[in-house]
Write a structure and sequence with these properties.
Length: 491
């Protein structure tokens, strides 16, 4: 079917020159991304979950993680028409919403919720008589462990050493990693898949947003949302495990927490809530650390790794652990809809933030950009826990599949210095060098990432769909997500 081009006039003007007419499709107008109003707000539906029962959402609830163009009108607390159907009944409900994110981005993560018919078999969005059916999943009611650690989306992932550290630490203290992947070195992906088979982690897709067809103009969503919609992934994880987990932590792969006072996360978190029963979340600061990476899996050692860990005085803005019945959505560090007075802050321990791993024989150029002082380890890591993790690692090394994968893992950094330099130029120079803020939406989606012949990448992919033209919202979504070996290493 041929694409119909529709022209739209804009009554806006900025300065003496009137704005040009708008055409359908992708709009190139970077200087006016935060001021130019469009005919509709385009909405990307990341996921939708159905809850037959929910402690916080009520019975027969539907909750959606979305990305919404926020400029056309105030989308804070916007409402959406949701239609739920089963074999005998259809019911229209008003879905209320809340947004997360930063005001300097055109698109913002949002969570919308409504209650509908029981045993729902079809969910539709409706506006002015126009409807579109959207895919949904059943929310989880069981979890591998009572503590789920939601790991933000990984792209051009190659730091298998940090993964090895995190996965064995989490397992030791009773946590289960739910990891979102956009792109990852093939051998590293195979390593993760083996850990998934062993029950240590769950892998999930994190695809790039694409609008398959529009009758109205739109700004590119991936370039105009904060950090690849990291907050949206964390909200998706929250919605997945809302009724299944006792506690949910929202961490990056390089955010590693060693409990200080109790042998497990479950006991540690429960003790913190016992001290402040009304808390909506517990916030752990993140202390910067560096360590020397093993070059091969055979030489990877927890004893050596912990010996090489060095702490900085710098403690960055933290990450939260939540009781899921008290959180419905989240931003990167915490929910912007949370009452700060009910957020419990922990001074000690802090998260071991290993954003700056060092190569044994590499040039470590990252340290020339990011100048920071490091000294002796300033966290409590018990020797018997290190011994237990070393033994667990030894068991994995004996698995034949792991042995086959080991020699294919990269021994040197390739993407880390490229990504770090791009992120530094795009945003972090202000944070690290205390320069006057000059950046808008925190995003580095346009970073150029070269491809490598010797290391193929696995990339998440899906079938993309756009709903019919609807006002004030037009909806886009995906189905049938899968792993692709044909896209390459991109964000």
């Amino acid at each position: 079917m041929a694409k119909t081009e529709v022209n739209f006039k804009s009554g806006e003007s900025i300065g003496p020159e009137p704005l040009p007419e708008l055409k359908s499709g992708l709009l190139e107008d970077p200087t006016r991304r935060l001021t130019r109003k469009l005919p509709v707000s385009h909405v990307w539906i990341t996921s939708a979950y159905y809850y037959p029962t929910s402690k916080s959402l009520g019975d027969n609830a539907v909750a959606m993680a979305m990305v919404v163009d926020t400029i056309n009108f105030n989308v804070n607390n916007a409402t959406y028409n949701l239609i739920g159907s089963n074999s005998t009944h259809t019911e229209t409900s008003i879905a209320t919403s809340q947004t997360e994110g930063v005001p300097t981005c055109r698109y913002a993560p949002a969570m919308a919720r409504a209650n509908t018919v029981e045993n729902v078999t079809k969910v539709e969005m409706e506006s002015n008589g126009v409807k579109v059916e959207i895919p949904f999943k059943m929310a989880r009611y069981t979890a591998p462990k009572p503590v789920i650690i939601c790991i933000s989306p990984q792209f051009v992932a190659e730091q298998w050493q940090i993964f090895m550290m995190h996965v064995h630490v989490a397992n030791r203290f009773g946590g289960h990693l739910h990891i979102y992947l956009t792109s990852i070195i093939e051998s590293f992906f195979e390593l993760m898949k083996e850990y998934e088979r062993q029950g240590y982690i769950t892998l999930d897709y994190w695809i790039r947003m694409k609008f398959q067809h529009t009758q109205t103009p739109y700004f590119e969503p991936n370039e105009n949302i904060e950090w690849r919609n990291q907050a949206g992934a964390q909200t998706d994880c929250l919605l997945q495990y809302k009724e299944a987990a006792e506690y949910i932590a929202f961490f990056d792969m390089d955010d590693i927490l060693f409990p200080k006072n109790y042998p497990t996360y479950l006991e540690e978190f429960s003790a913190e809530w016992a001290l402040q029963p009304g808390a909506t979340s517990v916030l752990y600061g993140r202390r910067e650390h560096e360590f020397v990476k093993a070059e091969t899996l055979s030489e990877f050692s927890f004893i050596d790794l912990i010996k090489s860990l060095r702490s900085s005085p710098t403690v960055k803005r933290g990450k939260v652990v939540v009781k899921p019945d008290r959180y419905n959505s989240t931003w990167i560090h915490y929910s912007n809809n949370e009452n700060e007075a009910t957020r419990r802050s922990i001074d000690n321990p802090t998260i071991v933030h290993v954003q700056r791993p060092l190569q044994k024989h590499g040039n470590n150029n990252i340290t020339k950009l990011w100048k920071m002082e490091f000294g002796p380890l300033n966290e409590t890591i018990r020797a018997h826990d290190v011994t237990a993790m070393e033994e667990d690692l030894g068991r994995f090394r004996k698995i034949p599949t792991i042995s086959e994968i080991a020699h294919k893992l990269p021994s040197e950094d390739f993407y880390l210095p490229i990504v770090f330099k791009c992120y530094y130029d795009a945003f972090y120079d202000n944070a690290f060098d205390h320069r006057r803020a000059k950046h808008g939406c925190p995003n580095a989606d346009t970073c150029e990432l070269p491809q490598r012949k010797e290391y193929k990448c696995v990339h998440s992919h899906a079938e993309y769909f756009s709903g019919p033209h609807m006002e004030p919202f037009t909806f886009h979504f995906s189905r049938n997500q899968f792993w692709s070996w044909n896209i390459g290493c991109y964000q």
